[in-house]
Write a structure and sequence with these properties.
- By secondary structure, this protein is an alpha/beta fold.
- The protein has 7 helices and 11 strands.
- Strands 1, 2, 3, 4, 5, 6, 7, 8, 9, 10 and 11 form an 11-stranded mixed β-sheet that branches.
- Helix 2 packs parallel to helix 3.
- The chain is globular and about 50 Å long.
Length: about 260
């Protein structure tokens, strides 16, 4: 069976080089996502299409091997989301990550008939730098290196504190959120594809969830199982809601709804 999903979030690590006052995650943990966990996830998903893939953490540049491994697998298997991106605090430059993003983007845009977006060679690969009053000032030397190395990649700034501040972890302000699993809506297309209007979050410790917000302890408490034993069929059977209105060709026509609380 193949699956089409909305968002795939890879928690690359729970380690971080900063201790920001607004961090909803709380104390860092010495946990790194492994390439084995990533491969198991991709094997089980057998992706037909995914809208967005995000590398986050923790600070993702502390685990460059997993990011490079994932991007190279996406290149080989032609997994082509609308956006693949990394969110970083901008304090560490990783040449391995920069090279992997370049390889992925270059292979995609050099195919015949690919449209190029404005000043960027591609608009589907992003590196986002966190800039807000809580983070350390952005390291301009690091950003300059990414700009020099990543000729193919869009670079942007994100001020998460203005719109997404969550009360939890180190953060004493922001909105409080209910800790509940989402109920994905899904529909079948043909005999071999299921289109899921929902998110998949792979934690660095290998736990799978569809709830990616809040402290690490809360994310773990709402896990759906470890990736080594996780079954998408069982997940949809227990938590999903079927809908014929989204049974469209995966990756071609997706009707999006917000998450549904259980």
């Amino acid at each position: 069976m193949k699956y089409s999903i909305k968002n795939l979030y890879l928690e690359v690590t729970r380690k971080c080089n900063l201790k920001c006052a607004h961090c909803m995650r709380g104390p860092q943990q010495d946990v790194m996502l492994t390439t084995e966990y990533v491969d198991t996830l991709f094997d089980k998903l057998n992706l037909q299409f995914v809208e967005n893939i995000t590398f986050g953490g923790g600070e993702p540049t502390l685990n460059p091997d997993v990011i490079a491994h994932t991007l190279d697998r996406m290149t080989r298997e032609r997994i082509e989301p609308y956006i693949v991106g990394m969110i970083t605090n901008g304090q560490i430059f990783s040449e391995e990550i920069a090279d992997a993003f370049n390889r992925y983007a270059k292979e995609r845009v050099e195919r015949p008939g690919v449209f190029r977006f404005g000043e960027y060679v591609c608009d589907f690969a992003h590196i986002a730098f966190s800039v807000d009053k809580y983070h350390a000032p952005l390291n301009e030397e690091v950003r300059a290196k990414y700009r020099e190395y990543c000729k193919w990649i869009r670079q942007e700034e994100t001020d998460s504190a203005n719109t997404h501040l969550i009360k939890g972890g180190y953060s004493k302000e922001g909105k409080e959120i209910p800790y509940v699993l989402n109920r994905p809506v899904y529909g079948r297309f043909g005999d071999d594809c299921i289109n899921i209007e929902g998110d998949i979050y792979l934690a660095a410790n290998g736990l799978v969830t569809n709830f990616a917000t809040g402290e690490y302890a809360q994310v773990d408490a709402l896990n759906l199982g470890h990736i080594s034993t996780f079954s998408f069929e069982d997940y949809l059977r227990e938590y999903g809601r079927t809908s014929e209105t989204i049974a469209e060709p995966c990756g071609i026509s997706l009707i999006m709804r917000g998450p549904h609380e259980r």
